[in-house]
Amino acid sequence: PKDSLDWRMVSTISQLLNFKVEVLEPPDCQWGKQEENGSWTGVVAAVERGLADFSFNLLLTGQREEAIDFTVPYQDDPLTFCVSQPLPAPQWQSIFRPFPSFGLWALIFSTFFILGLT
To answer: What is the pTM of this model?
Structure first.
């Protein structure tokens, strides 16, 4: 789909961020369906296994959303970008998760420092 909204977005982003886009078709020429054993075919399998970084023009379904991550739909169309599910964060990082902002941590430590001096 060389002349679509998705392709134009990917082309523009690739130019701005200086990376090359290679368009691949899955060997089985399928969008992706779940097999009886739980594995996926087609585009969903390629993204899930890391054989492709992303895909577009893929219909978001409940089953597919359990296997790969989707963006919020960005046009009046059920097709979205998708990526593999993120790995869980290490347990030792759990103390930092409630306050992800560096500025907030600086404020917390500054408060402890100032209160410690008084």
So the answer is: 0.59
Whether residue 118 has pLDDT greater than 70: no
How would DSSP label each residue in 58-113?
A: EE--HHHHHHEEEPPP-SSSSEEEEEEPPPPPPGGGGGTTT---HHHHHHHHHHHH
CA angle 98–69–79, rounded 5-degree value = 135
Q: How far apart are CA 45 and CA 34, in angstroms?
A: 9
Is the pLDDT confidence value at 102 over 90?
A: no
Question: How many other C-beta atoms lie within 10 A of the C-beta of residue 73?
Answer: 12
For position 77, what pLDDT does the model report? 64
Q: How many CB atoms lie within 10 A of CB 6?
A: 18
Task: Give the full edge-to-edge strand order of the sheet including 55-59.
Answer: 55-59, 79-84, 68-70
Closest CA to 22 of 33, 32, 14, 12: 14
pLDDT attached to residue 79:
67
Contact, 56 vs 81, CB < 8 A? Answer: yes
